[in-house]
Amino acid sequence: AQDQVDIALISKGFQHQFWQAVKAGADKAAAEFGANVTFEGPESESQVDRQMDMLAAALSRQPDAIGFAALDSQAAVPLLQQASDAGIPIVAFDSGVDSDIPLTTATTDNVAAAALAADKMAELIGGEGKVAVVAHDQTSRTGIDRVDGFVNRMKEAYPNIEVVSVQYGGGDQLQSTEITKSILLANPDLKGIFGANEGSAIGVANGKTELGSEIVVIGFDSGAAQKGMVESGVMAGAITQNPVGIGYETVKAAIGALNGEELPEVIDTGFYYYDATNMTDPEIAAVLYD
Amino acid sequence: MTDTTAPGQKTGIRISGAFHRLLAFSGLIALVVVFSLASPNFMQTQNILAILQATSVNGVLAIAATLVIITGGIDLSVGTLMTFCAVIAGVILTYWGLPLPLGVIGAILAGTVVGFTSGTIIAKLKVPPFIATLGMMLIMKGLSLVISGTRPIYFNDTPGFTQISLGSMVGSVIPGLPIPNGVLILFAVALLAAFILGKTALGRYTFALGSNEEAVRLSGVNVDRWKIAVYALAGSICGVAGLLIASRLNSAQPALGQGYELDAIAAVVIGGTSLSGGRGTVLGTLIGALIISVLANGLRILSVAQEWQTVVTGCIIILAVYADILRRRKL
Amino acid sequence: MTDTTAPGQKTGIRISGAFHRLLAFSGLIALVVVFSLASPNFMQTQNILAILQATSVNGVLAIAATLVIITGGIDLSVGTLMTFCAVIAGVILTYWGLPLPLGVIGAILAGTVVGFTSGTIIAKLKVPPFIATLGMMLIMKGLSLVISGTRPIYFNDTPGFTQISLGSMVGSVIPGLPIPNGVLILFAVALLAAFILGKTALGRYTFALGSNEEAVRLSGVNVDRWKIAVYALAGSICGVAGLLIASRLNSAQPALGQGYELDAIAAVVIGGTSLSGGRGTVLGTLIGALIISVLANGLRILSVAQEWQTVVTGCIIILAVYADILRRRKL
Amino acid sequence: MVGGSSERATTPAPAVPLVEMTGVDKSFPGVRALIGAQFDLRPGEVHALMGENGAGKSTLMKVLSGVYSRDAGVVKLDGVPVEITSPRQAQDAGISIIHQELALMRDLTAAQNIFIGREPRRFGILDEGQLNRDAAAIFASMNLKLEPTVKVDTLTIAKQQMVEIAKALSYRSRVLIMDEPTAALNDAEIAELFAIIVRLKAEGVGVVYISHKMDEIKRISDRVTVMRDGEYVGTVPAADTSIETIISMMVGRTLSNETLAIPNTANAPVALEVKNLRRGREIRDVSFSVRQGEILGFAGLMGAGRTEVARAIFGADRKEGGEIWVHGKRVGISTPRDAVEKGIGYLSEDRKLFGLATGLDVRNNIALASLDRFTGPGGVLDEAGMEQAAKEAIRQLAIKTPSDTQEARLLSGGNQQKVVIAKWLLRDCDILIFDEPTRGIDVGAKSEIYKLLNNLAAQGKAIIVISSELPEILRLSHRIAVMCEGRLTGVLPGGSSQEDIMRLATMRETAMELRHAG
Ligand SMILES: Nc1ncnc2c1ncn2[C@@H]1O[C@H](COP(=O)(O)OP(=O)(O)OP(=O)(O)O)[C@@H](O)[C@H]1O
Ligand SMILES: Nc1ncnc2c1ncn2[C@@H]1O[C@H](COP(=O)(O)OP(=O)(O)OP(=O)(O)O)[C@@H](O)[C@H]1O
Ligand SMILES: [Mg+2]
Ligand SMILES: [Mg+2]
Questions:
Q1: Is the pTM above the cut of 0.90?
Q2: The CATH number of the domain covering residues in D16-94+176-254
Q3: Where does the chain cross the membrane (chains B, C) (predicted)?
Q4: Cβ contact A61–C303 (<8 Å)
Q5: Which residues of chain D neighbour B208 with C-beta distances below 8 Å?
């Protein structure tokens, strides 16, 4: 496979289903276009420096192109500059890099996606009452965007809804479960909880089941467990991005860049709200992943 | 030769022993009292059950760590080994579709084998426990991902599986008291570990090894064999923890587990077991694990901002141990 | 009474000492050779520099941990204390807009004060180091978030800041050798720590404390003072690490840091320092830290799948330490 | 010099000895501990193994008991060559050993220590009752009053030593090796131990007995084998050989045993005065003083509280009341550092636990209490100065070590003790408290230490010597303080008789009350 195009993808995470879905999309594109793709990411979204080490090692490998999902875009600038100096094209994915080095960005608008979750939540609880958020990370871009998107939307559009608690469980299902149970026990009149990523959402749903609560749960992302919960109604619904699409578009854009194609500034891969009623719609089913 | 153990002293020691054990709860009780006063939601049955449920996994892991720490060793692999065992159960039950009991046995056996391997590396190759179990932690973490194909394995085809942790045998007998099975399992493991430590040769050698390994060797005891046995036992307990967490999440989550070792070791040390070995109790470890859960639960119930929760937890851990030291010094 | 110190014997010991030191690199050298053969990209200047750069933060933290571990203690707070110091630098430079040197001094001072506090809790209140520094780890983690307002602080207004880690003084003198300053700082810290350990009273007491604290106390030494000094020194070194990481990322990332203590302690133990105290070297720790980085980098260069990287890393850590044990046994 | 050929043993020599070791070699890095060593043991005899510190006695016995493997040589049991490679094998072959350095599991009880590896079980479960009963039976047979359920780390070294002896006895071995069993024992306990040994002899057990106490050799042993520098010197019958001969075999020359002139210190200024020192039942209103140039001996039975008094003065333990005056000024001492600053040094009775930093080398152990003196600007140590001081001390005390950079834990027991003494000599204190300074020290070195103490006194230092060996107290002291049950029962002049001391040492409170009543 010496003559194959070598593309290194440095993501924000690795073990989570979301990133595995991105990887699946990238692999799909790799197979389609005959490229060799590697995929790596740090353990948690706070490990900015570990991601730098991964990027540095990837550069040493002298790949033909790099796909990069920056945990902190500023921190990455010197290394990206180095890559760009070496003539290696860079495609950003998942969230943007504050720099003009990346040729394009394949991403989801997380603020808007979380605002949609807020709208759905408001609709389901009847426009008033207390809600809470269980998110994955207090400092990462996606964590901040989704919490802000949800909370601000509630503040602006639904004055009768109060966000009583925002807590962070690191995306760990068990920890998110414990957090959810505490929130429910502390606020018996709570109407709903938004789980801001896959692990958080599943944790919230588990906490709800364990306490036999009737609150409205809105999740984020998909995965087999979450789909099952939406199907069974434990979770009212969830926002899904299109991670497979993100991975696919990233690799496709990288290859396009190598072939000298013109790339758009942003490739919006979109987000969707799904619930038991629309899960099987072909458009939705296409972006859901296991 | 004079007898230093006058009868009066003896009763003194006995009384102080009981008193001691009672007072050991003091840190925990203080926390419970404070939280009960601060929030009416804290002392509700459901919340108490939530706290116990939250303790079950860390409690079981901490008991495994206690055994190893009493020998003067350390086990950093408890968290990822737990995950590995959960994945093994997933493979057996979901991928291979075998019946539930085989999954249970498989998970515990996997833990035992891995613990046995760590113990062998430590005892035979003389690799320090910190390194051997650090390596094992990474190996288990990687293998969990490899075996599961980096995706959760769900137990949807094994309906009884979630009952291991979430069902309530007590609740089905006494309707008002839905103590989850996971909590019962924690107590069962604790009783078993306490029995082994207190009443069996394995327990005796566990303490002896941590006290003075060289002396045990000089006494003609096969030190290696017993050391390996302790690690294997700890591994099998991690297997139980794996079943607990998998049944609670109805899935084996291959990415989870790292970082859990620190909570487990913290519970052990807060419970008064010395990291230099030779002394420690399962009861202390249980209290330590409860202190950690009560703290987390209480601060959340009070809706303390999360960054401050962390600060307060840090302070209280230090204070709880300091209070325990003061108490012991006085007695 | 006769003198057994025949001249021949003495030289024998000296030679074996030097040989020993040379061989200590063997694990590292073996890794480098394997990776060089496996990939032509490994031995390139840029990659070597990347490895050194990747070692700098963990290396400095590991040196801090080495000091504490030699006293027979442990420091779990190195990672989050580093972050705390980075945040303090951010507050001074960005929020208050003060000049660069004040930020540097402030970060190191913050580390020293926190280390001093941990040391005091350990020495005066007799709280075990594991608990005291576990508590401190959580407190630092929380305070970093509180002070920074849970968001990164950028150093865009302090243009020289990234030069601390990323600039290259060597490169500006010898153009072909752009060794980043961060690496120079690592070596400077290592030299300083080795000097303190080997040549000063503080260093001597560090070893003595780990060897037999009670004997040191009964020799009329103010044990508490020296112990506190060691923790304070370790804290100030964490301050340096804080500056390194902040300047490398051009920002203080308040959520980072937890988990880094394990890598640091692993480097120390791989480097041959005993967790029970009394022995250890800075050179060993440097080698340990390099082994960790070379392993991570080499496996990435070889495009090994990430889950397998973890497995291989675990195995090699155990093997490296085992090889070291074999070597020592033979000599 | 007496050769090994003078075989006139008190017990008839059976055809085949129990143990026969010949040509045994053993080297450690930098040290040849045994060079062609030889030894044999017959059933029913007590065979003393003698030699200076570091002669290789413990090493030879560790080879026999499976702790070390030998580099060369033959070991025969009942005339059959054997390979003993583990302590377990030694036990199975009927060999048990009491190690010189206590090897107890501090967190276990006395009974648990004794039966480690051989716990009585019922249905696989430990039978703790049986365990304690068995231990109690052994204690009873030793006339030892000790609760089987007491944790050993709360026991004094003497009692810990008794636990070790009980453990060795419990194996009911044919060969029993005792490596300095009496170093920590007082006369009454030694008598008890000897009674046990006599009983074992009668049962046909062969006993190897290592001790530096010359009088014991005469009292208990049948034959004596002497080693020097790892080599076999000779074997002689104990009854027909004078102590002087044995000593000259050990050291390779004759020791002058001059009695030391006791200078008159009655008018010298008081260096240390202790008034009404108290702490619970352990220290009850102790007052005494030591003059410059004076050696004050402290005698008493085990548990008399001498160590407690010393540690309380030194600030190592807390006191409940009392005053300490140094050179006529009242001083507050609450930590050892205070004491050292006031010019007081304390050599503790347990070198392993409290004296030696075992991981450090000899040089740094010697300099440990004086590091501030070797600290230059910037905290940098004067390594050359330390080396010189250490080498001087090694020469002065004839410490047997390959170099001053040898790790202290690798020295033989007696040489470790000398290192700790060297530490305090280097510190140059005005007032020195020596707690069992010659414990485990060979005769040659002992007389060196006596000379040293006298020299120190002659230099005007005030010295307190705590010792359980009455001859030592009598030989050294200008005055003798005697303690019993935490009280100072009297201070006797230098030339007092052993009987006077024993009378004060056993003056129990109850006895005094009875006398008052009568
Ligand atoms: N494990 C070891 N490593 C290195 N040297 C050792 C070791 N054990 C003993 N030695 C050395 O071997 C020599 C003999 O020591 P050994 O303990 O047998 O002496 P000993 O006759 O019992 O002396 P003592 O009367 O002081 O107990 C000494 O020089 C000692 O330093
Ligand atoms: N570690 C300990 N724990 C509890 N009690 C102790 C301890 N050490 C000593 N004691 C008690 O203190 C008293 C005096 O101890 P010790 O035997 O050390 O006196 P001593 O006069 O120094 O005797 P010797 O030096 O002959 O051993 C005794 O009652 C003893 O039981
Ligand atoms: Mg000896
Ligand atoms: Mg004493």
A1: no
A2: 3.40.50.300
A3: 22-42, 48-69, 76-96, 102-123, 130-148, 184-208, 228-246, 282-302, 308-326
A4: yes
A5: 105, 108, 112, 116
